Protein: tRNA-dihydrouridine synthase
Amino acid sequence: MKKLSQTITVRNLKISPPVALAPMVGLSHCALRLLLREQGGFGVFFTEMLAAKRLPHENDTISPLLIRDRIEKPLIYQIVVFSPEQVGPAVEKLHLLRADGIDINLGCPAPMVKKQGGGISLCNDIHHANKILSEIRRRTQLPVSAKIRLGVEYRREKLSAFCKNLEDLGLDYLTIHARLNGEKFCRKPRWNAIADIKKGLSIPVFANGGIFSTEDALRCLEQSGADGLMLGRGAVSRPWLGAEISRDVYNRPIEIHTDSRSKVFFRFAELLEKKLPPERRLGRLKQFTHYFATTYSFGHSLATSVQNSPTFRMAMKNAAEFFENSQ
Structure:
């Protein structure tokens, strides 16, 4: 395996260590980002996917998608764009929000997103995609990146040409989720495919998909040759994963928190109460618990008790009972 870089520099942005939190709908909000920042090990964070059309009208003091703590840096805002006309107002808003970078969603398979011509649909309409991406590059000096999948079917030459086109348009780095469009998460990621694509690029590439341990991280880097890693569900189920990878893979002198898992859970709930509006807390807690509970032998009991809770207070009571009985 090649010698690992401790820092990736794109324009004026330094990502150190090169470990990123993925943009995940309903999960990559302020409370989770702060929890992971406390746990350590991440060099950059991404927001949830934001609709460029709605973004200029969103209130960043109340929208759970935009609420941000001043210590969250660097923070990359991911947007899904349907037309070049949406770019100007969206980029202007991101400048006002002091974004550290802009990421373009080219991999979302949601039917509504595809129907409107965004996400993975842009990968099949290069002319339209080029108009949007060129407009974004023209409008900002911030680092611009994109997150993609491997396609409907893996066709190396076609995907390599598409990614080289992204680089030629001025994108500063790229994240590749190593699965085909529509493949479920249980499908083993195709990390080797990332290596094929990276050969034709000079910009940094982050590998995403199937990383739940330091062993996974090492195998991914070895097979993909990627410059960095993007963690998704693995960072939700094990919030200390970034710190473990930073220490054991990138040899960073970082202290791994030895707090009990219950303490991590309740810290997350505390951050939800501090940062998100009351009506947004229970849903986010349920989503987090769905993944976090997998770290327990009988975690389904925790997930079910929280999922069936009608209020945030009841969810906390049920979680406390589970942890008390799990000692």
